[in-house]
Amino acid sequence: MAASHETRARTDAAPVLDYDAIVIGAGISGLYQLYRLRELGLRVRVFEAGTGVGGTWYWNRYPGARFDSESYSYGYSFSQELLEEWNWAEHFAPQPETLRYLNHVADKFDLRRDIQFRSRVGAAHWREETRNWDLTLEDGSRFSARFLITAIGPLSAPTMPRIEGVQTFKGQSCHTARWPHEPVSFEGKRVAVIGTGATGVQTIQEVAKTVGHLTVFQRTPNWCAPLHNGRISEVEMREIRAGYPDMFARCRETFACFLHTPDPRGTFEVTPEEREAFWEKLYGEKGFGIWQGNFRDILVDRKANALISDFVARKIRQRVKDPEVAEKLIPGNHGFGTRRVPLETRYYEVYNQPNVTLVDINETPIERITPTGIKTSAAEYEFDIIIYATGFDAITGSFDRIDIRGVDGLRLKDKWQGGPQTYLGVQVEGFPNMMMLMGPHTALGNIPRSIEYNVEWVTGLIRHMRDHKMTRVEARPEGVASWTEHVRALGEGLLSNEVNSWMTGINTNVDGKQVRTIARYSGSAPAYRARCDEVAAKGYQDLALA
Ligand code: NA7
Q1: Do 270 and 381 belong together in one domain?
Q2: What is the structure's pLDDT at 5?
Q3: Any idea which of 11-15, 35-39, 286-290 has the lowest mean pLDDT?
Q4: Do 437 and 516 reside in the same domain of the chain?
Q5: Secondary structure (DSSP) of 460-488
Q6: Do 346 and 424 sit in the same domain of this protein?
Q7: Could you tell me the pTM of the whole model?
């Protein structure tokens, strides 16, 4: 391991820093950032809390975890060789396949030698006099670098529910994002799942295949739609490969980098028959089409949204045999698509199984977790396994967990108390030389597509600084104010911003996250890139460079 920066001369005009850049996180963004910075000839170190690469796909090993975006649209596009050699086995790859892919990438580009595993960053402090970041890992070791790049993911800080007695349960229990590496058998077991977001839905439908008895504790039902996964044959893979240039070009043009993009028609511009036929078609097709490729107004026009919600509600009623259970599974407090749409494979049919029980915890709240199970206001249930699919302290949560301090010791957590303020979602005023990948206020969408752009933009900025012998970059207050206002204005009129979800910064299990904030850029990805490209083309004049 490199010696601590403390052992180096720190009073020189040009201090010896351990690294040019430190990247936190070895997920999809961290790996690619390492690759690009190494290309520039920089000395880079990646600190990763896990024992392997993969980020989201390393941690989320829960049963049934898989892509909801088409696998081929979700891989890296930067290497033709990689595209040529990697075969996807399923249209929506399961987590082990994706983890294999990311390990393959790490090996192929020899990335591991610059990644230090089992290394969680506890603190990162800016040193103005030497223009560098000092990092402290949780084991106490310290490192310095000119640039700090956060590749810590928007959904990486899992949150357990605040229910009395969680620690007292004597059986096996686990948050989905901290699933053990060893296989877990559900055969003959009494299993509880708390949470019915995208993760809960994937977990429930998988566990239900082998479980003894499954009890689902639901607080808010979500509008789920069929995934329509399938295996990819050799012939199909050849076709997919031949189509890569067109597919990536399409992803660059679509609103959120998905293969799907809104239909230019409005819901009421077609006849009821055409509407129904269109929705039937979308419901029968793969992936996010029904959410991302629907009529252009379903996420902004209440009447349009009510109609598509009614369509999906009818599907749920058709699929769930017990009408009372069906009604419980139909969301009543938000419309279709205003929260992340979980994609499913026979999820609703799970509730037709005699060994599956749905507990609506609005009717009968959970009072506490007991040593043997869960006690609600109506009953006491015994379990062998409790699975917490209770989500994440999203977007800013992973930042809050690191003691990040900028100029004059200002804490990032305090700076963002009332919601994040950023410049292009990449920089924060008062936090020079810190670049965020997939931070707040960036275009998320089909995340790997957004990551590649984000990484390339950050790399371009660092290259510019190197070429011009600059050592400090900071967002200007006016740039931050206008970008933050722009992000806020883009969110106006979106029905999703009137709903509680991780997308609006709500997490009932975290103090201070009960008020909605705008943490997500909700404009189009092409518009986001155009703005960033313009800043680069003008020589990054909008940033304070020195
Ligand atoms: P989500 O979408 O935040 O879902 C978390 C679920 O857990 C949701 O159903 C919550 O109900 C439920 N929850 C959370 N806390 C509690 C407590 N205390 N009691 C009962 N139920 C609770 O997280 P996911 O992991 O499913 O998905 C996150 C994203 O990761 C997903 O959108 C994908 O993009 C990938 P609530 O809805 O808050 O009432």
Answers
A1: yes
A2: 42
A3: 11-15
A4: yes
A5: HHHHHHHHTT---EEE-HHHHHHHHHHHH
A6: no
A7: 0.96
